[in-house]
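Job type: complex structure
Entries:
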Amino acid sequence: MMTFKGRIIAPGTVTAKALVSHGGLNTLASFQAALQFGDKEAKCGDQNNPDLFGQKMAGAALCLPQTIGSTTGGLVLYCACAMHRQPACMLFSKPIDSLAAAGAILADVWVDDIAMPVIDSLGDEFLEYVKNGMTITVKDDGTVEVEE
Amino acid sequence: MSMILNEEEQAILDGAKGETMAKVMETLVRYGEVFGATRMVPVTSEYNHLVTSFGLKAMTAVYELMDKILEAGVASKQKFTVDPRPLDKNVPANFLQSVVFKLFMYTKQDSYEKQLERLGLLSDKGFSCTCYMDEVGNKPKYGDVLSWAESSAVVYANSVIGARCNRNSGIIDLMGSIVGYVPEFGLLTDEGRRASWVVRVNTTKKPEAQLLGSAIGMKVMEDVPYIYGLDKWLGENLDDAACTYLKDFGAATASNGAVGLYHIHNLTPEARKMGESLILEGAQEYVIDDAELARVKAEYPVMWKNPDATPKLCFMGCPHMSLEQLKTMTVRVERGLEASGKKKVVIPTVFTAAPGVLEEFEKTEYAERLRATGVITSYICPLMYMNNPLCKKMPVITSSNKLRTYTTARYYTEDEIITQITGGTIK
């Protein structure tokens, strides 16, 4: 087991299986089809992201460097949370970007019945170590445990 | 919370203007604190710009939040423009597509537009991603602080106009305008506007704006690039042609990466004013030549089921075309038809532009000439049009790298597009 310590953007604890993107997550491109057409598993629709394209994002511990793309990104993430199609948690190796931060905070402040822990600044070594399917546990102090 | 708020801001946060306003302030303060903001600064632009223009059922949570804001009576006094409408009856759609659009996707469009009016929509013509164009009327001044969203508009306002705006998300854009303050961090600060990348454009001809932007966006991601070599092709004045080029270039940097600001040596306002002092020590370097652009283009995935399918539709104008661009493209289509011996375009083609730009275009001789070629004009957002399973299956071509990124549309350079739609042969 490896442990990483990051910064808490949205608090919470959770255990889930890792889904890893080594490139930036384009939030609009990834979630738009799932939100519009009733895909409760939120399969990633971003053709430019070979790590995630077609993978189920809902309920996964999404491990990524940052998000990119359209400034609808934050509200798309907020809607994914409101529709209960959000990842179990979002774990950023880099400092979080403004769109992902907006989505995480909007969901935390305005959506009552969900918790999506968001941790950033976990370091490049986090993304180098974690692989799809590994078990991730997020603790309430921003510690992230990764087990094979 | 570690941000230092003034008396008014603190009172709002403490609930002096009600629970909804307190939550709006909490959202902004938490958002700013993530990025190390120590204070809020006033929004100084005359108008705001919102990214959310579409009445999608999937966005119900957004409309409910906006209802809360309206019910609490805290809507902003700052009027705003908003991204383009998703539908236009002028744009070709078969029966099934029309049904899907009206009955399944944009079922909230009418009610959402009423909501936008109540929230302070500038006018019925205020629907465009290119709000900064003279014909639309939402052009901030150099140094203005904005609470905008829409990645292509933000990168343009920062880079070409010299206004100051972070890459805000939808909803955050509205909240900053409601409070009248935004957290000061990133592109609002002098330090945040300095470049951590030096890009050298060494191409043998003027690079395609949307291809060059894509290459730079994918390389620098959210960082600020300082770009040498483009002044050779664009000149040193921000005339209509240069602004049009930078509009398309910037949109590609923002959608293929996450660029919110770029500096062009000798051309964009801050580069002209501060020059190379904008470049951070230890900045990384990226050299772009013809081979690099060819590599980037060749790596775009083709998302069509049949890569050899005949295109059924062509979109140009994501982001919306300028008046100058509509005129130039009219001439290029005419010349293409002349060369191929055809009278009208052979692929249904839509040029999209802001309602105000289209209105001005209609006053010129070019409008009739473009109509004669068979090209349709529309105020639609091509991206929203393409966002459904039916259009996804359609072989659509585009010169927009933003549209390529978010949909199954296939990217071609402008020359290649002109050749295809006019029935010529791609060499």
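Summary: The beta strands of chain A are 2-5, 7-10, 14-20, 25-26, 61-64, 67-68, 89-92, 118-120, 135-138, 143-147. The mean pLDDT of chain A is 94.
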